[in-house]
Amino acid sequence: NNIYVLLVMGAITSFIFGMGMTITACYIFLAIVLAPPLVSAGFDPIAVHLFMLYWGMVSFITPPVALAAFVASGIAKARPMEVGLQSMRLGAAMYFVPFFFVLNPALILRGSPWEILVVVGTAVIGLALIAAALEGYLLGLGTVARNAGGWAARLLVFAGGLTMAMPGGGELGLSHVQLSLGGVVLAAAGLAIAWLTRPR
């Protein structure tokens, strides 16, 4: 009866089918099999269908299939699997976005103007922090030190970004303010550690 387990299983199913089928065929099949249980669980129908379509396309940058990465590796004369792993790391934020807009459809512009503005704004800031943590580069601070303090800073910035990007309300049960404040505290702690441990 856990809706979050249902979402994760739906994402895995969409991903597996997306590896071996065209997006259209994958979506049609999942719209028949997977969409009804998710919609009956209380999720927004448009968000559910976009969730399945989105996860069906994730395999294009995710090894071992990573079709887009294999094409790019041919152009760049690079090793396909290495390009696939790099593309997966650079695009890591996209693995979280579908869960965010299913939990609160305001992220796909289904809500009041104020709610949409707040959810989209905090999501953009949060995803920027996630990208900075994954890359190990923070604006104003430069490259994060590759020591214990640096890794702790990156982990805190990542957690803060994830908390900020996660939309409040909807199925989650926490308000935008609660999540945003928690994210700001975590990210600020990470930035402080990154500043103290930065390369001299």
Characteristic terms for this protein:
single chain; mainly alpha; two-stranded antiparallel sheet; flat
DSSP summary, beta strand count:
2
Average of the residue pLDDT scores: 87
SSE arrangement, N to C? HHHHHHHHEEHH
Estimated radius of gyration: 18 Å
Q: Outline, from the CA principal axes?
A: flat
Structure description:
The protein has 200 residues and is an all-alpha fold. It folds into 2 domains: 1-90, no CATH class; 110-200, no CATH class. It has 10 helices and 2 strands, in the order ααααααααββαα. It has helices spanning 3-20, 23-33, 35-40, 45-57, 67-76, 80-90, 97-103, 113-135, 148-165, 176-196, and strands at residues 137-138, 142-143. A hairpin with a 3-residue loop joins β1 (137-138) and β2. The protein is flat and about 55 Å long. The protein starts with a helix and ends with a helix.
Summarize the structure.
The chain is mostly helical and 200 residues long. The chain is built from ten helices and two strands; from the N terminus they run ααααααααββαα. It has two domains: 1-90, no CATH class; 110-200, no CATH class.
Question: Secondary-structure map with pairings?
Answer:
Blueprint: H1 3-20, H2 23-33, H3 35-40, H4 45-57, H5 67-76, H6 80-90, H7 97-103, H8 113-135, E1 137-138, E2 142-143, H9 148-165, H10 176-196
Antiparallel strand pairs: 1-2
Helix pairs in contact: 1-2, 1-4, 2-4, 4-7, 5-6, 8-9, 8-10, 9-10
